[in-house]
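Section handout, structural biology tutorial.
Before the tutorial, make sure you can parse a SMILES string by hand: atoms, branches in parentheses, ring closures as digits. In the record below the ligand is nicotinamide-adenine-dinucleotide, and the chain has 355 residues. In the tutorial you will relate the predicted structure tokens back to the input. Do not try to memorize them.
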Amino acid sequence: MSKTLLVTGAAGFIGANFVHYWARSHPQDRLIAYDALTYAGNLANLDSLQGQPNFSFVHADICDYDRVLATLREHAVDTVVHFAAESHVDRSITGPDAFIETNVVGTHTLLKAAREVWLGGPSPLAHRFHHVSTDEVYGSLAATAPAFSEQHRYEPNSPYSASKAASDHLVRAYHHTYGLQVTTSNCSNNYGPFHFPEKLIPLCITNILRGLPLPVYGDGSNIRDWLYVEDHCRGIELVLEQGAVGETYNIGGNNEWSNLAIVELLCDRLDARFAADTSLAGRFPGAPAAAGGSARDLVTFVEDRAGHDWRYAIDARKAAAELGYAPVESFESGLERTLDWFLGNEDWWRPLLSG
Ligand SMILES: NC(=O)c1ccc[n+]([C@@H]2O[C@H](COP(=O)([O-])OP(=O)(O)OC[C@H]3O[C@@H](n4cnc5c(N)ncnc54)[C@H](O)[C@@H]3O)[C@@H](O)[C@H]2O)c1
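Predicted structure of the complex:
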């Protein structure tokens, strides 16, 4: 049976990848992309979907209860996939208010409206509310500690992760208190197409291509688990199709890297691209490899982020056992696809950068 999905934050990085993925793999379903178009939202991410019969875009804020309610009703939405958030830890340190507003109040506004529409009538409507969250709610791990399982206690350390933790609890509470049919997924760091170039991987790619410094926090030893964004989309699809209502699933890439190792890997991969394709030197004359240099010379250590979590790692065995989840991309293949995308989509990232 076909579904009608409301995808919040659909003009952002993961939301956009998700709507493209869903449109390809479920062409019979209707997709309502809902986004306030903050600095992180980019309508260009949805260009190829605009005008398609099963796709609509709603420019609105998730904190606007009346708009959320009207959208759910007007489109007879049966599935919410909730990505919209303030998502950059550094911004949450300098300006936490927007994080509380969107991530906590906004998520609560969606839940309230969903409850009204799906459970407020004479008989409940079939529905699902899927909430997309982060491994950062679990806090930080020591070097040899086991990866975060779904049982790990919540221990958020930044205003960003605290706001996501609060939203996870609200989603859980709406299930336990009102019977809303919810699922939650907590995932590790994503990378891939449409990644806004303030985050580590796209920042490094676009800075190397322009010959700009590659800022590395502290000594670069902080460790993250990296997940190709399409594998995340597949994981969410599995949770929507087979996940148990009220449950939480961790989605990871089994792929831990220190920040410095990632930056150096990107430098080496891009240098190799320049060596293999001489036209790149003409297109990106600022890149060190264009003049026979090495991108590693751009690495610049900067003062560590306040309260910087040392290590995140995801234990995704529950999703593997219950849903058959496994990442399809290796880091090797995912990174090559990401480099292909950034090299082929300069028109997308140039306007987002100042230099
Ligand atoms: N990027 C990652 O590596 C990662 C990892 C784990 C979890 N997550 C979670 O995945 C989700 C998506 O992350 P992302 O990286 O795509 O974020 P993003 O910052 O790229 O995109 C967020 C989108 O939400 C929209 N938005 C922000 N506030 C809004 C509001 N009040 N109303 C409507 N729309 C609003 C923005 O315009 C933007 O399009 C977030 O919930 C984030 O916490 C991301």
